[in-house]
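Re: your question about C-type cytochrome

S., sorry for the slow reply, the queue was backed up all week. Below is exactly what I fed in.
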Amino acid sequence: MGRLGFAAMVALASLGASASAQDAMSIGQFEFANSCVQCHGPAGKGDGPLVSFMTGSMPDITQLQKNNGGIFPVARVFNSIDGSAKVGAHGTSEMPAWGQRYRADAAEWLSYQGAPGEAEALAQLRVLALVEYVSSLQEQ
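Result:
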């Protein structure tokens, strides 16, 4: 199964299967609600409840594609979320890098499941799911 591994696929499937069909949300939508809404707001407009406690303004992430010549900047958004690059508005220390938290969570969960070697792949899948969800918020 390559780099993703069976354990990572099972982990992702179990994340999505935990919600009832009526209340189902994508993994990316779950990650956004859990990690991003507090600052970026439910629609990604930069109006989350924690914004008043921050210095500067929060970026409107619904404009990423428009501000990049109509092409959604997948790698830049991935690297911002993962913490592997400091770029643009997400280059400040106020933007937490979720990649480290995702890797720690994955390592703990997969160790419990008996598949500790797949933590990086599972963390990357979570970041990719979040990137995909942020892409769905883009205004034309």
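The CA atoms of residues 29 and 84 lie 22 Å apart. The chain has six helices and no strands.

Happy to talk it through on Thursday.
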